[in-house]
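How a chain folds remains the central question behind the approach discussed here. For one protein, we set the task of working out the structure tokens from the amino acid sequence alone. The sequence in question and its structure tokens are set out directly beneath this paragraph.

_____
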Amino acid sequence: MKVKETIQVGKSQMPTIGMGLWKLEKELAAKAVRDAIEMGYRHLDSATDYANEAEVGEGISQALKEGLCTREELWVTSKLWNTDHRAEHVRPALERTLRDLQVDYLDLYLIHFPIALKHVPHDRFYPADWIYDPDSESPKMELDTVPISETWRAMEELVEAGLVRHIGVCNFPTALIHDLLTYAKIPLSVLQVEMHPYLTQERLLRLCRERDITVTAFSPLGALSYVPLNMAKAADTVLQEPVVLAAAERLGKTPAQVVLRWGIQRHVAIIPKSSNPKRQRENLQLFDFALSDQEMADISALNRNQRFNDPGEFCERVFNTFHPIYD
């Protein structure tokens, strides 16, 4: 199956493979981003919550100064954090991200979670955490009553102002997507969600295809990023599944390449995270082979509906607040 190196987003083309920047250590971020761009990455997936946007911006700036690419050749994504959902906070949040990333516009800006939290002024604490006041006797999340429609309209104004080319959402289930589509004046361009062979999200993916919404899969390799956070067990890895190992042996590829190829062969963009240059190069080398229909079906059959990034679980365990967003 022929898979293109870019995927349609509205009238634009987004690189199918991006560099995920979650958990990228500050001290490594600038060099890792600069080196990734030299390696061939043109899609960078950032977020305020990752607490490394200033360092990522240094890497982008260095790459542009060296002539490794032009700004127009890059696709830069960032995300609006939960504490900035009120209309009056959306543009200031975006402007801070632009300053940190050292760019004049974003290619894509996403609502990070369908969770509105009480605003934390940027001069008090930035980036804000899930917990409103970490120094309180009983630290917890402080919810705010902000409808998604208010936040979305403010996002649309960013597009109208020329600060953002496309807007979308992360971590939204089907019901919220249906609701958003009833009032969106500017189309929902991209949905970014957790997606891997243990969480194939078939119905969500079908809905997006029917509504011309591009899907980006975060954590496309599954459990790897979550084991150090005690959100997954080492035994949860999909990379040891017999069908994955058999396909890797047949193709002369690594198990990770097989799983990532499964992702893009479903016509989904992927944003694997790695600061290891060898793995970064491997993650780009997905277009010179293809999985058979049977291999695709067998890997999809590994689905367990197993979600590693679930606010309904980690918010209560870590932030003393029960707040599920998935049934």
Remarks:
- Residues 12-319 form a domain with the TIM Barrel fold (CATH 3.20.20.100).
- The chain is about 35% helix and 15% strand.
- The radius of gyration is 19 Å.
